Amino acid sequence: MSDTGLSGQQVVVTRPPAQAAALAQRLRDAGAGVRLLPLVDIEHPLTADDCLAALEALAHADLWIFTSINAVVALGGRTPARVAPRIAAIGPATAARLAELGLRAWVPAAGSRSEDLLADPQLGEVAGTTIVIAGGEGGRGLLAETLQARGATVHPLSVYRRLPLQPDAETLAAALTGATAIHFTSASAMDQFQALQPEAAYEPDWVVISPRLARHARTLGYPREPVLTAGPGDEDLVAALRALNHTADAMTDPASDAEAAPPPDAPAAATPAATSAKPAAGRRRGGLGWAALALLLLALLLVAGGWGYQRLQQQQARVEALRVDLAAARDRLEAVADDQADLARSSRRGAEQLALFDERLGRYDETLGALHEQVSGGQERAQLAAIEHLLLIANDRLKLAHDVPSAETALALADARLARLSDPRLFGVREAIAAERAALAALPVPDRAGIALQLAGWIQQVPSLPLKARVPSAFEPTPPAAEAQPPVAADAPWYQRSWGRLQAIAGQLFVVRKDPGQAARLLPVEEEALIYGLLRLQLENARGAFLQGDGESFAALLSAARGWLAQYFALDQPAVRALDAGLRDLQDVPLSVSPPDIAGSLQRLRAQLEPAPR
Fold first, then answer.
1. Is the separation of the CB atoms in 451 and 546 below 8 Å?
2. Can you tell me the distance from the alpha carbon of 576 to that of 580, in angstroms, rounded to the nearest whole number?
3. Residue partners of 237: CB distance under 8 A and separation at least 6
4. Which of 309, 324, 432, 474 could form a disulfide with 601 if both were Cys (CB 3.0 to 4.6 A apart)?
5. What is the DSSP string of 134-174?
6. What own/partner pairs with CB < 8 Å and gap ≥ 24 does 86-95 have?
7. Strand partners, 161
8. CA-based Rg of the chain, rounded to a whole angstrom?
9. Which of 416, 367, 361, 368 is closest to 391 using CA atoms?
């Protein structure tokens, strides 16, 4: 036998087009007529790959919560490679869609709303846990706010949004003409309907799925109490429409408690037949007898009428008493009804005040949410600009100054700021930064500060180095024909030009010659000071070349300093030998390396900052 419990109902379905087919078929199976009037549509701003990547990045969370079927549809029918240890769904329908992906989710013990999920004991103690809420943009925020108040760290993940649809006037009129009920599943659809029909007579009954939507209907000016379903499921709507249909049938039944007052007894009236007797002489003598008989009959009629009138008066008195009692009973019933009405009005006023207060709080929440979104949006743009600046600094320091540590520091700071944003769209930028940091870490970067300090220590150590016990004794002025030093270029660094001038001056002052026929002697004090000063100068120039990154000059100066040590200092002494070994090791330090390309992260960030084409 077919289900015809909704026969005569004409139901307007406002669900999004992709979700209305199953409900429309169920209503038709129950005997109702269906008018499809989608007022909102569902859009997924992220691709399925982005949604899966975002969830997999948050697989370390203790719990994932899916607030609707739309949040599951955003995954594109695919299962994340890594999932949280626990998954919750707002209701059985959402859990069933997760089960199709192989994800087992628990649902509230009763109900399919956010309040029911929060009332479940499994969300009672969540302090210190991390929870991801996959839902729509611009939602109520009740789940996140309550869980945060309970001590949990909440990561909202917006995977879909509702877009208002605007049917044309002809489609709207065709859907509403003769409709008996209109079904709403979201406040967005109710707002859109109110915007399309601001002067509507509200002939169809509004059927909503939650007390919050019922309160929202009153704030929109709906004059009656909306029909509230037991839940958001299709069967909940069918059951609510059946109850509405039965109520309408009961209101159309004719009244069966009409009073029927018994009719009063009517006295039997008899009209004597007037007989006419022909005048006859023989019968005149009986005229008196007939008159007496008539008088007797008249007396009997008067007695019977009086008795009947008395009986009528008695019955009327009883009826009047009954009417008085009935009126008193009605007065008592009206008093009780008035008390109940007063109580109902008080309850209604209290409910309306609570609804208005709740609506006011909701508007405050929406205002704060919009303000937070504006502020957070501005902060996010400022943070992205700061991250872009850090990436520019990293590229400039590496390409212009070959400063690998500074470039690595700038990349690390940019990655830390991206991590705080926790935006799935920026995962590609973080991936590029990670690759660039790995490339910088593989470069052979010398310890510039350590080497500079080491050279400074050696410079301070020079006056304490021992000279050779015997040095050549012939210090004669350099003859004019002595071999001249090669000239130093005018654009050479200052330390090379200084060293060249000192070499030229020293060559003009004296030349050291060895005379095998004479015995060696110790150097005079002024010549020892010159030898120490020249070694210090060589080391100072080497330090300057190192800080400038001039590897060729640095190696040449170190080689000259080692030659000077071998010529005038005692290499058999530990201090001189250690200095010579240190200089030899520094000659092998690479000062110039080929920097890697670290512009990929900057290019990806700028591509993300560019507005999407319309």
1. yes
2. 6
3. 23, 27, 183, 207, 209, 229
4. 432
5. EEETT---HHHHHHHHTT-EEEEEEEEEEEE----HHHHHH
6. 86/62, 87/63, 88/63, 88/64, 88/117, 88/122, 88/123, 89/65, 90/65, 90/66, 90/114, 90/117, 91/231, 91/232, 91/233, 92/233, 93/69, 93/232, 93/233, 94/66, 94/67, 94/68, 94/69
7. 43
8. 53
9. 416
33-36, strands of its sheet edge to edge:
33-36, 10-13, 181-183, 205-208, 227-228
Interatomic CA distance for residues 593 and 445, integer angstroms: 8
The number of residues in the chain equals: 614
Q: How many CB atoms lie within 10 A of CB 64?
A: 26
The tokens 């009206």 sit on which residue? 334
Q: How many C-alpha atoms does 51 have within 13 Å on its Cβ side?
A: 23
- The sign of the torsion formed by the CA atoms of 437, 443, 447, 452 equals negative
Tokens of 24: 């429309």
> Tokens for 414?
């940019």
Q: Is the dihedral of CA 197, 201, 203, 209 positive or negative?
A: positive
At a CB cut-off of 8 Å and minimum separation 6, what does 430 contact?
415, 418, 419
For residue 294, give the amino acid letter: A
Residue 31 and residue 3 in contact, taking contact as beta carbons nearer than 8 Å: yes
Q: Do 55 and 158 form a contact (C-beta atoms < 8 A)?
A: no
Tell me the per-residue pLDDT of 117-173, one tens digit each, with 9 for 90 and over.
888 888 888 899 999 999 988 766 888 999 999 999 999 999 999 889 989 888 988
Q: Where are the beta strands (DSSP E) in 203-328?
A: 205-208, 227-228
Residue holding tokens 């290499």? 571
Strands 511-513 and 474-476: antiparallel
**Both tokens assigned to 327:** 């009126």
Residue 593 is classified by DSSP as -
Give the largest CA-CA distance in the chain. Answer: 222
The pLDDT tens digits for 349-393 are 666 667 776 777 777 677 776 666 666 666 777 888 889 899 999
Query: What proportions of the chain, in percent to the nearest 5, are helix, strand and coil?
Result: 55, 10, 35
Report how far residue 390's alpha carbon sits from residue 409's, in angstroms, rounded to the nearest whole number.
9
> Which token pair is 440?
């910088």
| Residue 408 to residue 565: CA distance in whole angstroms | 39
> Residue 212 has which token pair?
């919050």
